[in-house]
Amino acid sequence: MDLVLRALDVLIAGLVLAVLSPLLALVAAMIALTSGRPVLYRGPRVGRAGQIFPMYKFRTLAPDAEDRLGPYYGEELSRRTEEEVTRIGRSLRAVHLDELPQLWNVLRGDMAIVGPRPIRPAFFTELCEEIPQYWQRLVVRPGVTGFAQTRVTREEPWANKLAHDMEYIADRSVRLYFRVLFATLVKVAGRGPAVSDPSLP
Fold it and tell me: I want to staple 54 with a disulfide (CB 3.0 to 4.6 A). Which of 42, 71, 78, 120 is the partner?
């Protein structure tokens, strides 16, 4: 099953990147012109088997925002992040275009399209101390979107998010894969942040 899901990841990510490449180039140019460089945010995240990888997003925050936001997460992180979002970044977040560079992570093999959302190494260490079974989510690649993101809000307790992640890991199938994709598209088309990063917006 994992080979089938990986093949779907590569096929979908490759097609989307090819079709949307002119849009991605335009977004990159707009970020560079309105708020300077870097255009991409590269943040360390914990991947499958605990491997650290750089997760890519279009930069939507002011330069060096992560240094200022580093100690926070949850509601406090959400509140402080709002003060750091650039004007173009706010527009990108509204339609979730900032997440598209993660499809490159999918092609590289760092991520899957569907799976538990990756988090920063420091948060992962803290969460493993609070929730000993948290490491179990590392048995699969982290996802651009996930089962938890289609069901709960960012402020939901970490233990609740983990329960949804583990449900996906235990029951993952092609049917559930497309179910999560469809739920994500519905949520993105509506008003919910279906693919928000739980450790840094």
Answer: 42
Q: Which residue has the tokens 């990888």?
A: 53
Closest listed residue to residue 42, CA positions, set 57, 29, 28, 31: 57
> Which amino acid does the sequence have at 190?
G
Q: Looking up tokens 């930069």, which residue turns up? A: 59
Q: Please give the structure tokens belonging to residue 22.
A: 């002119």
What pLDDT tens digit does each residue of the chain (201 aa) get?
Answer: 789 999 999 999 999 999 999 999 999 999 999 888 889 999 899 999 999 999 999 998 877 666 666 666 666 666 666 677 888 888 888 888 999 999 999 999 999 999 999 998 988 888 888 898 899 999 999 999 999 888 877 777 888 889 999 999 999 899 999 999 999 988 887 754 444 443 443
Element (H, E) at 76: helix 75-82
CA torsion sign for 158, 190, 85, 59 is: positive
- Provide the whole-model pTM: 0.84
CB 10 within 8 A of CB 177: no
Among 109, 108, 1, 101, CA closest to 42: 101
